[in-house]
Design brief:
By secondary structure, this protein is mostly beta strands. The protein has a domain of 72 residues: Aminomethyltransferase beta-barrel domains (Elongation Factor Tu (Ef-tu), domain 3), CATH 2.40.30. Helix content is 5%, strand content 33%. It has a six-stranded antiparallel beta barrel with strand order 1-4-3-2-5-6. The radius of gyration is 16 Å and the shape is globular.
Length: 129
Amino acid sequence: MPLYGHELGLTTYPAQAGLGRVVNLKKEGDFVGRAAVEAGSPEGSRVLVGLVSEGKRAGRAEYAVLDANGEVGAITSGALSPTLGYPIAMAYVDAASASDGAQLFIDVRGTRVPASVVALPFYKRETRS
């Protein structure tokens, strides 16, 4: 879940955080922020992605996310998931690095830890029939 102050904030557009679907632009009349949402995210804005890595070292807020050529983003929050059993993180990355399966690295205190971009949410509860 996106957390205000990490994945969400006053300078974050809903579309960047994957929440564009929750804003009803078909609703008649004005509302606070309507013009900004209609304008869309600024050109070159980073987008929120999920990252999964191996081992026990999780990316933490503000750790750099890198590709083979350099920095492409930053972790917003992360932890070793007790439910899933491996490290997960959310990060804002350049749109070119945001495709599912993209191979990136998290700079964990000077060590490049391999990470894969995955679709959010990390976990979906199974529904019973």
